[in-house]
Amino acid sequence: MSDWTLFEVFVRSKHGLNHKHVGSVHAADAAMALENARELYTRRSEGVSLWVVPSAQITASSPDEKEPLFDPSDDKVYRHATFYDLPQEVGHM
Amino acid sequence: MTTQHALTEYLLRLGDSDIILAQRLCEWVGNAPALEEEMALGNVALDLIGQARSWLEYAAELQGEGRSADDLSFRRNEREYRNLLITEQANGNYADTLARQYLFDAWHYYLLQALCDSKDARIAAIAAKALKEVTYHLRRSSAWIKRLGDGTDESHQNMQQAIDDIWTYSGEMLMADDIDNLLVEAGIAPDSAAIKAQWQAHVSATLKEATLDCPPMDSYMQQGGKQGLHTEQLGYLLAEMQFLPRAYPDAVW
Amino acid sequence: MYAQLVDTGVKRVKTLNEMSPEERHFQEKIDADIKIEAKNWMPEAYRRTLIRQMSQHAHSEIVGMLPEKNWLTRAPNLKRKLQLLAKIQDEAGHGLYLYSAMETLGANRDEELEKLHSGEVKYSSIFNYPSRSWADMGTIGWLVDGAAIVNQVVLQRTSYGPYSRAMIRICKEESFHQRQGYQILLEMMRNGTDEQKAMVQDSINRFWWPALMMFGPHDTDSPNSAQSMQWKVKRMSNDDLRQRFIDQTIPQLELLGCTVPDPDLKWNEERGHYDFGSIDWSEFYSVLKGNGPCNKDRLKTRRNAYANGAWVREAAKAYADKHKQAAA
Questions:
Q1: Residue C184 in contact with residue C191, Cβ under 8 Å?
Q2: Considering the domain A5-86, what is its CATH architecture?
Q3: Which chain B residues touch C141 with a CB distance below 8 Å?
Q4: FRET label pair with C162: which of B75, B165, B241, C68, CA 20 to 30 Å apart?
Q5: Phi-psi sector, A4: left (phi>0), alpha (psi -120 to 50), beta
């Protein structure tokens, strides 16, 4: 099967939710990858939608870059709703 | 012949074909060409056993002798089995298995589609559920016919041989006997001529796309399974499948 | 334990002071229970140990299908056939999850399968015992899966992220396997004939000791344990896991109304655990060496399946290539 391509599998478990990475499958082509992913990752009605992507096509951020990429957002608390104190009278916003 | 008798026979034909084919698929476990195929064959077999159970439960109720789907599956002899001959044929190589599966799936799909409109509400309900499963079976097996037919020289040869070998067992499902005719008139079963046309169109298109030669549609076709006259293969299959309930008649499992 | 005697290739566990800065950073993450992910730096020995452990684990799932397949085509009713098939199919799935996790480390499934086929990499020895009766389907689910689950529950906290996530998924799915097995036995013991009850007891007699051996040799005879524990690819010692398994299994055994073939088994009030007799490790090593009743058959079946399927896998690939070209 080394000739078969490795595909990463993403499952959307319910309508309205994001696709989530669950693992990988081997397949000769994308159509077969979808079939194989269906057999492997949705045996217990885990999904309503599937994506398969050739693993080689995924560009991942390097762990060494974690700090420059993600730390700057740590101090941007004003992006979060809880940053803004409002009087009780406003109620739920 | 009463409609009830015809209906019981008809249900046995459906249920027996499902259980026998599922039993053959179970034989592949641990031996499939790829782990991914183990999963897929397992899913098809699980679907078919579930469908068999629904058809046989209904048949047992109509018989009214207090038997269960298990009694029907595990305590009838070869001569009482009503499955299509195609379903009992040995697995052979993977092309043989897929050729058998595809020709069966194509028939199964169009039949279930038509049975969704059966005047018998219970049949229509079982068919509607089974159709979803079989739609997937057909998509999968047609894809494999194309992959092997239009894959390598070796796979092309194997698949052509497989189609040629199984072909003589493909006609039985499209031929109507008195039981079928009676149920067609009662609006319970569909006219097999319509199914036949759909089946032939699907099969000739798929084989063509798979670069395979379609054997003549008017070839000589074996039949008899629906009446309980089987090939030599069924006896061994049942001997294995029925071993425990036969060897321990008083046991509960 | 589905992975047994995994060699770490490490002679002596290093202290933090002896480590390079990279190693130390890595070990500190592990000590802080931060998961290691595929792209993180890791010692080469850690990577190789994990590949060995995960591939053994995956192979065990796949070979473990065979003793159950032996009764799948003879399951006594439709319900049992459905349950057993679903369980066997899960095992193929679990093998695939584990191979998939293993491949994140740059390993290749085919190469690892080659090592299985050549006998270079082992699978759990328990599957070298034959399934001789239908009761074995119950015993395998209850004792063999039960032993595996005790180990796998702990492995959910293993340090390598993809392995840990695969274990979480597997544990969730496997919860039905053990219950399925136990229920097969319970039905036979409560409602079965005398012959069936004897079948159950015979099955437990045959599987009890091999099931205890699944956890591997005593801690004192496990030279790789210390390193595996430091890396948190192993989270509890063999003897502790074995004790935990026995403690939780004996009450279930009593409920069945069965016994185990160990005259020394008794509750030790002081320890708060069951005492049990000594395990015949010569049998364990002998089966490991290839002398179990089914070693040769199991490998032959897997080798044949792989070899006989080669033309199918090649055809699918050839078809995909042709149609990719046609589409381009």
A1: no
A2: Roll (3.10)
A3: none
A4: C68
A5: beta
Residue written as tokens 């409002």? A86
CA distance A12 to chain C (A): 16
* Domain residue extents for chain B: 3-247
* Angstrom distances, CA of residue B73 to CA of A42, B15, B70: 30, 9, 5
pTM: 0.93
Q: Read off φ and ψ for residue C290, nearest 5 degrees.
A: 120, 5
Distance CA B216, CA C302 (A): 39
Is residue A92 packed enough to be buried (19+ CB in 10 Å), middle (13-18) or exposed (0-12)?
exposed
| Eight-class DSSP state of C160 | B
Query: Tokens 């759909």 sit at which residue?
Result: B198
Q: Note which residues in 182-201 of chain C have CB less than 8 A from chain B.
A: 184, 187-188, 191-193, 195-196
Q: Which of B39, B143, B147 sits opposite A40 (nearest CB)?
A: B39
Beta bridge partners of A50: A11
Distance (Å, whole) CA C158 – CA C49: 13
In our burial notation (b when 16+ CB lie closer than 10 A, e otherwise), range C183-208 reads bbbbbbbeebeeebbebbbebbebbb
Q: Which among A38, C311, A47 is positioned nearest to B137, based on CA atoms?
A: A38
Per-residue pLDDT tens digits of chain B, which is 253 residues long: 899 999 999 999 999 999 999 999 999 999 999 999 999 999 999 999 999 999 999 999 999 999 999 999 999 999 999 999 999 999 999 999 999 999 999 999 999 999 999 999 999 999 999 999 999 999 999 999 999 999 999 999 999 999 999 999 999 999 999 999 999 999 999 999 999 999 999 999 999 999 999 999 999 999 999 999 999 999 999 999 999 999 999 999 9
Give A19's DSSP letter. Answer: E
Other C-beta atoms closer than 10 Å to the C-beta of C163 total: 25
CATH class of the domain whose range is B3-247: mainly alpha
Those residues whose C-beta lies under 8 Å from the C-beta of residue C276, and which sit 6 or more positions away, are C212, C246, C262, C264, C265
Verify whether the Cβ–Cβ distance C100 to A1 is below 8 Å: no
CA triplet C305, C308, C311: central angle to 5 degrees? 130
Distant-in-sequence, close-in-space partners of C113: CB < 8 Å, separation ≥ 6? C59, C306
- What residues have CB less than 8 Å from C328, skipping those under 6 apart? none
